C-alpha cells in the first residue's frame, strides 16, 4: 500500500509493473476501488500500472469537498509523483470525467486518454438528488440491487462472483459515495470537450445502464479524432465483465501513444 498526502488527507494508490515501463494511470468509477482494474493490469505486462482510490472509497480518506476539478488535481499530483514522462490516463465513469478535465487543464502530463463508459455530462441533477436522498435515508444497501442492474449485463449478474462486486459497493463509505454523486451532479464538461487535443479512445458497453452507448458516442463525437469502440454484451464496468476484451482494445492504443 502506498499513500500520497493530499490537502484533504491520505490518497491510497498502488503501482504494478516494471520500474522502467511506460506509465498508465487508471481512475475508478463511483462505488468501486482500485481492485476494479485487477484483470486489466494482469494482462498488461511491461506497463507500469498505477491505480488509486477516490476520496471516501477504498482506503483513501474522505475530502471535505469533492469536485471533478479537485479530483483532476489529485490525479495530477499522483502523476507528478510516479512518472517522469507523459502518461496515458484510463478513466471509467467518474474516472472518465476526471480524465477529460485533466486533458483540458494539464494536457502536458498526458500522452493520451482512454474514456470508458463515461460522458461529458452524466445524469440529471434530479436523478443525482434522488440517489443521494436514498443513500442518506437507507445507506448504500438500499440502492445496491439497482446499482448492480446498472453496472452489469444480465449474464454477468447470474455469476457466482456478483456478491463480491456488491460487497465492494457496500464497503464504500456512504459519505464518500454521496460526495462523488454531488461532484457528478455539478459536472458538465460538454463545453470544453472540443478543447481536448490528445489521442483519445472512447469505450462504450452495449448493455450499460448507467452511461448508455448513445450517450457515450455523443460525447466521443465532441472530441476531435476520438476512436470509439463498442463492447458487446457488457455493461458499465468492462474491466470486471470482460477484462481480456478491454485489454484487446486498449493495448494497441497504449503501445501507439507511449512509444
Please sum up the structure shown.
This protein is an alpha/beta fold and 259 residues long.
What does this protein structure show overall?
By secondary structure, the protein is of the alpha/beta class. The protein has 11 helices and 8 strands. It has helices at 38-41, 68-82, 94-105, 125-138, 144-151, 154-157, 162-171, 174-186, 213-220, 238-241, 243-257, and strands at residues 2-6, 9-16, 23-27, 48-52, 87-92, 110-116, 200-205, 227-231. Strands 1-2-4-3-5-6-7-8 form an 8-stranded mixed beta sheet, sandwiched between helices. α2 (68-82) packs across α3 and α4 packs antiparallel against α8 (174-186). The longest helix has 15 residues, at 68-82. The mean pLDDT is 97.
| Order of adjacent strands in the largest pleated sheet | 1-2-4-3-5-6-7-8
Strand % is: 15-25%
Distance between the termini: 29 Å
SSE pattern? EEEHEHEHEHHHHHEHEHH
Low-confidence stretches: none
Question: What coarse outline follows from CA principal-axis ratios?
Answer: globular
Oligomer: single chain
Q: Provide the gyration radius in Å.
A: 17 Å
Total strand count, please?
A: 8
Largest sheet: 8 strands, mixed
Number of helices: 11
